[in-house]
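Input/output pair, single chain:
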Amino acid sequence: MNEPQLQSLLTAIAISSGLTTSSTTTQSQRSSAFEALEQFQSYPGRIAACLHLLSRPALHLDANATATPVDVTTSAKLYALGILQEFLKKGYAASSEEERWHLRSSILGAARGLALASEPDSRILSMKIAALLADLAVREFPQRWGTFVQDLFGDGGIWLAGGVGVKICLECLKLITEDCTDSDFNSKISTTRRNDILLGLNETSHLLLHPLFSLLSNQYNSILQSKSTLQQMNAYLISQSRSTAQMTADERSQYQRQVEVRDRSAASVADALVTLEKFCQSMPLDWMFTVQNGIDFVSALLHLLQEETANIHVLAVACLYQLTMRKLESEHWWRLVGTLPGALYEASVAAARRAEERGLPHAHCIQMLVEQLEFHRGVSRMGATLVSAHVAYITADKDVCCGSGAKFDAVSTFLRLLSEMATHHSGVVCGEQINTWVSLLRDPAIVKTKVLTSHLSNVLVAYMKHLVRIRWSDVWDESHPYAALIEESWDSEEDYEDWLGNLRSKASLLFRSISHAEPEISVTIVHSKVQSLLTAHSTGEPRDQINPQNNELTPKSTACLEFEGVTQPLDNILQGLPSWSVDDGNYDPKRMKIRQTVKPMLSELANMIVAWNPCDIWLKFRRTLLLEALKHYWKFEPSTLPSGIDSLLVYLSATDNAPRESLSVDVVGLRKKVGVSIVAVAKVVPHLLVPWLAQLSDRAKALLTTGGLSPTNEMHLYEFLSCVATAVDNPIDRSNFIMDVLSNSMRTLESPEVRNAISSVDGLLSFMGIAQVASDPGCVTNHTFVDKVTSDFSAMFSGLNQLLSVGKRCHEAARARPNGGLPLQNLPLVIDESSSHFPDEGPVSLNELAINDPFVPLWPKLLPSLIRILDVTLGVWHPDRQANLLCNNIQRYALAISDDEAYLATKQENSTGGVFGEGGTAGSIVSGWDRRDRNLTPKWSGWFNELRNNCFQLLGLLSAQRVLYAPEISHMYPQLVSVVANTEHIRSMEHRHLNQYLKQFIEIMMLSCPATLYQSHLTAILVPLFENIQYRLQSSWDPIIRLGAISTDSTKPLTSENCSETVKRLSTGNPESWLMAYYARGGLFVGDLDSVTGEAAVEKARVELTRNFADMIQSGKSIWRVRGLGSECFKSSSDQPKYLVLALKGGWALVLANKAKEEQAVRRNDPSKLTAGPRNQITQGDGPVNADGTSRTPVQLHLDARKLLRIDKMCHFLLLENELIAGHLVGTIVQCLEYPDAYSCRRCTRICHRILETVAWVDRYTDLIGNRLLSAAVKNIVTEPKWMVGIEWDMINIIRDIYGRLTLGQYFLPGGQGPGMQQARDPNNTVCFEQSKVVDKPLQGGGILVAPSDFPRRIFIQIGISQDDILTLEKGLEEKRSAKDQKDILRDVLRVAADKMKESESPFNRGDDNGLLGRANVNESLLHRHARQPAVSALPEKLVTYSMVKKAEEKAVEADGPWHGNLFG
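Output:
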């Protein structure tokens, strides 16, 4: 490049970067400059030109080009470096060795020149050159650039230039370390290349660590010297009674020179620590821990904790933190544990000295705390991580276990350091430690050592202190003593609230663990805390933050905040107390002594709380929570229980202290909380309340007759009584009491008003005030009419809700009984697992069921009303009714979704106040009105939702209690089926209705139905349901799949503006076309809701229905995986459980997982597996545990035996006993594989495996499986849609399962796991295979199609696979039968088909603009994963280091050494 060309390039750079300020620069000149720079990037000689630019010390425009000379050095060099960096990515690999050497030399020369120069922008250029050197090293070092480290740190290297040169070297090393170790960058560099680089760095580590340590040492000494000089200068000024502002010019110059030296040296140390942090994180630990030739990085880091300049102490902590997160050797860990407390003490002394020099009162003053917050938080996090990541070193040491010795003292000292740091005034400091303390307390071995005992007091007090909410207004007006520290700790009040919520959730386990380990300490502290609070705040002192309207305390009053903060610790501590500390048993003397201290304090604590009688509403609220917490104590000492319950019942009817027309919000909240509390107490100690059952009943009746209770309070009262009643021993007395408690609810449902309302759809519409609108539209806002309708509906709904609530409580209590809820009072001790007959696995009379569940006798009276309510409710959505309601401008809103459903369509949290908060959807369905207004219109949608869901839940309860299958109900069963399986009802349901129907009734019915009653009780309901679901899902997803867009015109919801068109279609059009359009929009009418939220609601309804259906089938088929017992538990294929088939939740899945554990224990002859939980949990106790870690009760064996029977029978019933059920079910599952929803598709693949295991051997299924199912699976793979990314292997496994069972005679372990097990040919008919021995046992693998089918081969031919390729495919699948090999073979074949199909597709489908329905690109596709290459590939030269040569020589010497064999045979 000659000089004119250079000047032209510099001119373009100057114009483009805005360096020319001449007003004569035109737009055309700027465009020409940009165009010239773009063209230069493709100029063949650009690399040489860029190297020439870098070699020039300065670059200026000639005076002829501009009015004044312009320095473009920095801009031009940055431009050149950018071009070189781009060249490294694209053209460097093709360069010759000479060209590569020349490029390296030029860049090194430019780096040296920059380091020696004193340009103002040198730091910017140094970062760019460092990145370029790092990119070069990643591509060349060590094979091709063996002198890289010497070029940086050796004689004449960049490092020796100092200043910027040091910065270049440090940044280069940091970038290389990140690129070669950080997982975020791993895809950029091949694994071989990364390993070679790390080996090279490790080989030359002595060349870079020594100068790095020398830098730290020298620069730190420079910092100390300059600081000492500055101190002397300040002392001199003080002696002269002068300040720094009064210095002379010469003094100021000298002073500033020392400040610059200090800051420059501190910046160098900080840069070195940033690089060291990466070394500590990823490089060999020997780099940091080895002490050799005076180099000791760990000691240096500990010493640097004293230096605050440039945040050096914070960076040193960050380095140590990275070390603590590594797996340290024992000696390294003990070294840190032993030296850290001393180093931190020296750091605190240094901080005190700095405070004294600055004239501050002490090192813990607010100003010093604020400045050191980041340091203190880092130290807390580092220390906590050091302990929690290496707990095994504590438990494995004999000194620690014995409670004495040097190592015990070291651990105790370190824990004392952590506990003292937890008392820091900022909560974020102690928040860093909470997980560590919890992990220590949950380890039984550590608790036994008593190494924690002396520190738990500090820990408990610290976390109790930080649970007290900070009043943020005190922070704003700086009245809080630590306002500045709080503002430094959290960015905003929202940030603090999030932190506090997280701390409280974690602190629950901490408090329980401390209480369980040290009951005396925890009870003493909480007793003292409550006593001091009652002394100081029992009457609300200091009575701040008063409500001016009633002169009462508010939630932000100091007294309320303090009592709020102690509630959770009290509850958790009482809950965590070991039984021996409070019961009356006989134990060893040590425990008896502790109990003698604990029990009196607990008694005094309970009496203090019960005796406290505050007047303020919010103090009553806090007392309610404290009384609720006493439920854990009342289990052992109930003397104060009656008084406590009496206080709660008094609060249940609390009123405002100042009379008013309606209850205040505070009183309503108090009543609700009291209701929840009495139920919570009754669930824990119901047996202790039984003696007072008569008095409680009378008290409840008195409260109910006053009429002042809200429906919610009444429901709580009913639940409370039902919980107590379930503890009554006599079954008849229990049932009679429950019937008496619920008599008002039953009378409400049998009242003439309700009977008339549920007699017909018109009656219900009139009852809810909908029918009257036709003649009087104004009635919806008439207050008298609104109040009457609201009161009538509330009475009916409250009756249903109370029945549901009490029924659930009774059912929970029945399942908790010794017989597990089974209608057998004397369970046999021995269980015959091979038996398929149980006396209770069939119809059971109500009398037998009522022995366990006192709610059961109510069903004969309740069920007819329930059937009628559900019938008329569902009837409102019939097409003819919809047409009539949609015609009316007001009545149509009865069919709309509610404001809450609109909110949930787009929101997932209530942090902004929920539906009524900022950004909420209140008033969006009925424009301007919401359910809180005295207007019936916005209330209707919520009422219908409540009524419908309540009915579905009652039906689920009917099934769960097994009343549905009782002989006494058999005459009502046809009537029930005529409603729940009514074709018109099912067809007319919206998606959201059907979702609740499936979750709350159908799934429970399928799980609870006895195996002998599947045919009689499930068939009539499942046939029309599955038929509708298949048609419904197809109609919902077809517009999406057909048009290739997530939202289309046909999927938009019905709104107030366009509902007239739907009315016309309903009245004149084809009903079938209306139904398809109805399903396409999910059946939703969204009223006045905006289009974006409306479309989101439709999408949510469609996706939720698909997912809920898949989940329901999985729960029925039990093909989910249990957490904690995955495939990683099994070392070989022979260890794979026969009954664990991808189970993830539900009681049935746990049964299969337990069965797998038992078989493992028998197979390995290891009974300990029966008492071991998941690997990620610590099992408490020695008894048997379930696969999920929970304790396994004896009655569970009986329950599991019945569930195992149902699991086996359910598969057979759904797939082999009824052709209509099987056809619709399998057809729907096949369709779901094509719907663009990865969640549903993944679950359906698992269902497909169970289908194959159950019916692959049946000829009638061959076309459905081998043609339709396989076609859908193959299509999903070869079309490579984006929504399939991440689940391709699941789909390929389906193809493998089908091909193996239908064509190759192979079957597999459940879920398509394990190798293909080849069946031999039938000797009597070589065309066929022999059937597997487990053909009738799908949970053990199932069977195969003995006569091979050609369907799979035909499908592969249709997608472009040749016959020869198919033969090669089958040969490979037969020879290589492992799961990985077979899936890889199928992937390679399908990739060929996908490539052929892609060539014939339009560019639209191949691009990235078609969203989730478009084809995945090469970087996303599983089929083309082999085509993805790292940006930096491995070098062809083999790496041979000095260490490798030495090891090879040592091995050779050993091989040639003398023979010392057995001379005497």
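The beta strands are 546-547, 552-553, 1306-1309, 1313-1318, 1321-1322, 1325-1329. The CA atoms of residues 19 and 888 lie 70 Å apart.
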